[in-house]
Automatic annotation (TrEMBL):
This is Uncharacterized protein. Keywords: Signal. Residues 1-27 form the signal peptide. It comes from the Bacteria. It comes from Tenggerimyces flavus. The lineage of its organism: Bacteria, Bacillati, Actinomycetota, Actinomycetes, Propionibacteriales.
Length: 342
């Protein structure tokens, strides 16, 4: 199926399901291999956002993934590496702002909006780039809400209720802050997170959803190699960072990178891709990736499930896992304390 047809099918399916969606939300990661050489080795492709600067292979700590080598304080944080932009598209373009009639700025309220474990949304730009904060701030709030809807609708599939616990104001409007980093701060993921930490965005009770005004990546996020079911799981703390650049601004990519921050998909999952993703489509977190580029299996036939988490809810996200199942005995991102639970 060509990309245009695939996106039209997804749009039809999602709208039919009653989910509000913008054009930007269609910037979903590619669902096939293609970011590899004939020998199966990963290669760089700046047009699709496959930029590996600052990432090093670290089998001891990160399995087949990467360690973010440039992090300050010798912190060991893994990454799946950059997610590719959809085939036939480029990260060098910018998504347009959401139309005024489609803007949604308010999140689900939770307490005072600031205390406790929360997701802070940031608009990030390098100091040598003009600010577009005023032009995009309400679009960013809308895309964050689209990501939240993915988590909510996916929880409904297992009879539960989950929402992203955003930082918000007294009127429940999602708090979006502008963070200005150095000219080289948007060149690679480690530099971005280091410079944000220097600005104070390094709280252990925060995960940071980054909308970076740059054209380097589609999306990239950190994950901790920890599949223990205990509340002490490393993915249950911050700071964690999930970066989405302008060519892929939208709810899908933001939800994908946040789920890495929440701990999905662990390498021990039943349908692991062996690269921090999954192989059973359709699914927000599934595609054929490095290092194995496994074949995909289309278990959830509804293509609208491209905007849902965890096909069959057996790998990384379920509000009601069966006793003795993988998610009952291993890390389940639906239990992460950065999500609102009833």
């Amino acid at each position: 199926m060509n990309v245009r047809k695939r996106l039209l099918v997804l749009l039809t399916a999602v709208v039919a399901a009653g989910v509000a969606i913008t054009t930007a939300a269609l910037a979903a990661p590619s669902q096939g291999s293609g970011d590899r050489t004939a020998s199966g080795r990963t290669y760089s492709d700046s047009v699709r956002g496959l930029v590996y600067a600052g990432l090093v292979k670290d089998s001891k700590n990160c399995g087949p993934g990467y360690r973010i080598a440039t992090l300050a304080n010798n912190r060991t944080v893994c990454s799946h590496g950059p997610d590719p932009a959809p085939a036939g598209t480029s990260v060098k373009t910018s998504v347009q702002p959401v139309k005024a009639k489609d803007v949604k700025t308010e999140a689900v309220c939770d307490g005072d909006g600031t205390s406790g474990y929360r997701v802070q949304v940031l608009y990030v730009r390098a100091s040598d780039r003009a600010s577009r904060f005023g032009q995009y701030v309400n679009s960013i709030r809308t895309w964050a809400n689209e990501a939240d809807d993915i988590y909510y609708q996916s929880a409904v599939e297992t009879g539960g209720n989950r929402r992203i616990r955003f930082v918000h104001d007294a009127s429940c409007v999602i708090d979006v802050r502008e963070a200005v980093i150095q000219p080289n701060g948007d060149d690679e993921f480690g530099a971005t997170t280091n410079q944000l930490a220097n600005l104070g965005y390094n709280r252990t009770d925060r995960k940071y959803m980054l909308f970076v005004d740059s054209n380097v990546y589609c999306g990239i996020g950190g994950i901790m190699n920890d599949d223990r079911s205990a509340a002490g799981n490393a993915n249950n703390n911050g700071p964690s960072y999930g970066r989405t650049d302008t060519g892929c601004w939208g709810g899908h990519t933001a939800a994908h990178e946040l789920n890495h921050n929440l701990g999905g998909v662990q390498l021990s999952a039943p349908n692991t891709s062996n690269g921090w993703h999954c192989t059973d489509e359709y699914d927000v977190m599934c595609y054929s990736d490095s290092p194995d580029y496994p074949p995909m299996r289309y278990i959830c036939a509804d293509q609208g499930h491209e905007y849902r988490l965890d096909c069959r809810h057996d790998d990384y996200y379920s509000t009601n896992p069966a006793a003795g199942s993988y998610l009952a005995t291993h890390w389940n991102s639906a239990n992460n304390r950065f999500l609102i639970r009833p």
